[in-house]
Structure formats: structure tokens, C-alpha cells
Amino acid sequence: MGNFSGIHYGLVSYMTVLNNLCAFKTFWIRATLIGAILCSFVTPVFAEDDAKFEPFTFVQLCDTQLGMGGYEHDIQTFRQAVKQINEMDPDFVVICGDLVNTANDTSFVDFKTIKSDLTVACYCAPGNHDVGKPDSKALKRYRETIGEDYFSLKHKGYTFVFTNTQLWKAPLKGESEKHAAWVAQTLSEAKQNQSPVMMVGHFPLFVKKPDEKETYYNLPLETRHQLLDLYKQNGVLAVLAGHTHTTIINDYDGMQLVNGEVTSKSFDKRPLGFRLWTVESLQTANHEFVPLTNQFEELKQK
């Protein structure tokens, strides 16, 4: 009974704090604080013993973006990536947005046709070229054509959280608030379940430094810091992104931030390809670059 009384007293105290959250100016801040408060009752220790952990691999694809490097070129390079991935047989594939360059029926159909040749599951996050400056029409089209624009999945003790980063970059009233609340709640549940988290989205949090000014290539500064705090509070081990067409690997207090190579057109002249992740434990995930093979003349970037 003593333990229950202590928990009850703590809950009453926290409810007092929760009742004052309405004073905050943004729904995002309220959602973040609520998630943090709920999680404060949970000890951040992974439930599953690493000795029993079953390692797994997955592929990070970025910016297939059919039409960015030449439409036929990008179709061929995407097909080549699919062929190599099938030979590697990872557990699954994630695509970090910009599936197509122009969001029309032809591009989406071609993307889905090539994607369907994968022999493993493939999960996509939307990019700015997929949903534009989001409005209800663009989101409806994406959801009906590709699938949900934000969702989570669990795999061998890990939680993968797929986000619609456009709802942070170019907020849409109603949709952005729902998205923010869902992210906070999903991370809260992962922490309660003692599950390490990998975030998957399109825009990186930052390119070089956490305090850099907002540009086309990163998220707004205030949102960025809120997310970094939220991610650290809830056991996020890695943030996978695309968008920059430049390979960027950062570390933020032990959290990996990885913008991988692309299959369409790179801006840093790196070879086209993708990242293969090997998850070895509940605390360790490594990645390596896999270049596209057979990049003969007609597949080279123009």
C-alpha cells in the first residue's frame, strides 16, 4: 500500500503541473512536456537482455526521387538498388522521403512498380517533393497512393518511428498538431516499453551544428531543439534522413544523425548507393555505404 500511496502522491503532483500546461504558447511544447512527464515514472533501462538479442539488418534508401537525375536514369538506378537489396536480403528497407521528383500519377505508379520488386518489406517516409508545402489535398493524395505519412513499427525490440517532416518545416494547422502529439505519445510508449528508437524522416534536424540558422536543408531552430530534447529523453539512438543529396553523418550526445547516399543525383559527387545498417544489440547500431554496382555509362550522373 505504501508504494501505491507514493505513486498516487506523485501522480497528483504531476497532474498539478499538467493542469498548468495550457499556459504554454504552442501545442508542440505541451505535447512534448506531457510526454516527458509521463515518461518520468519509467526507468530508461532496456527490458530485453542483450544476451538474448537477435541482430538484424535493414537498408536506408534516400531520395529515389524519380526525375531528379533524369527520369529514365533514376528508374534504372532504383531498379539496380532493388536488385542489390534483394541479393543482400535484409530484414526490411526504409526510404527517407522524396520518392519522386514530381508528385503525379505517372511518377507514383513507376515508383510503386519498382518498389514492388523488393522481396522484403519496404516502409516510406514522405519528402517535400512528395507532399509539397502540405495541404489537405496533397496529404490525401499521398495517403491514398503511397500510404500513411507517419506511423511506427516494432522489430526485434526496436521501435521505428516514421515522421512527416514537412509538417515541421511548413506547418499545416490541425495536421501539424496531430503529428506532434502522435510523435510525443509514440516516443512515450516506446520508453515505457523500454524499446530503443530509430527515427525515420526526410529533413535532417541540422546539417553541421545544432544551433545553425534555418535554411532549405534543415528544420526550424525552435522545433529542432524541441525535437532534440524529446529524442534524448526517450531513448532515440539514431535519426535517419535524406533531402540534402549529400552524405552527412553527425553525432548529438551519442545519438546518430545520418543522411545517407541517394540513388538519383548526389550533390557531393559521391557514388550512388544506400546505407546498410547492422543492429547488433539494444544499444549498438552500425552502418556502412553500399555503392550501386554496374554503374555503366548510361547510369552515370549527367
UniProtKB/TrEMBL annotation:
InterPro entries: Calcineurin-like_PHP (IPR004843), Metallo-depent_PP-like (IPR029052), STPP_CPPED1 (IPR051918)
Domain Calcineurin-like phosphoesterase, chain residue ranges per copy: 58-246
MF annotations from Gene Ontology: hydrolase activity
PANTHER family: METALLOPHOSPHOESTERASE, CALCINEURIN SUPERFAMILY (PTHR43143), SERINE_THREONINE-PROTEIN PHOSPHATASE CPPED1 (PTHR43143:SF1)
Protein name as annotated: Cyclic 3',5'-adenosine monophosphate phosphodiesterase
Organism: Symmachiella dynata
